[in-house]
Amino acid sequence: MTLKTVLLAVGPGDAERTDELAETVIEVAKPAGTTVVLGHVFTRDEYDDVLDRLDFDPDHEAIDPNDVAGRHATIRDLALTLEEADVSYLIRGAVGEHGETIVNLAEDVDADRVIVGGRKRSPTGKAVFGSTAQEVLLSSPCPVTFVRAESE
Questions:
Q1: What does pTM read for this prediction?
Q2: CATH code of the domain in which 59 resides
Q3: How many domains, the chain?
Q4: Burial of 1 (0-12, 13-18, 19+ CB in 10 A)
Q5: What sections of the sequence does the record tag as coiled-coil (predicted)?
Q6: How big is the CA angle at 42 (ends 152 and 11), to the nearest 5 degrees?
């Protein structure tokens, strides 16, 4: 199956695993000439915090979540790595609960695959993925690849 679009969904916990996420998405996308959608999903509180940190002025600027995502360090790092690997990409930002919003974004971009990161869990937590990963795995409109940071 040829992949046309892969969604790499990232959030606040993914800054430490950008190398693993980039390696995985390049492995999936490069041979197929696939477009990668770098999707940063923010909860409302995370979004408001990022607007403050990145010096957006909501009183003087029309704020587009895609612009906010594009200025976020995690997305900038991933974009640079994809450029170096000659993989085409788009940047999308979205605000909402992580799992549901990732699934909606996958549907919106007509993704053929979703790639998400996760973290190591306690023995009890291993029985169930984190709530975000679990929702994406169970509700995604396409196959999902789960990437755990190597350092964990």
A1: 0.88
A2: 3.40.50.620
A3: 1
A4: exposed
A5: none
A6: 20
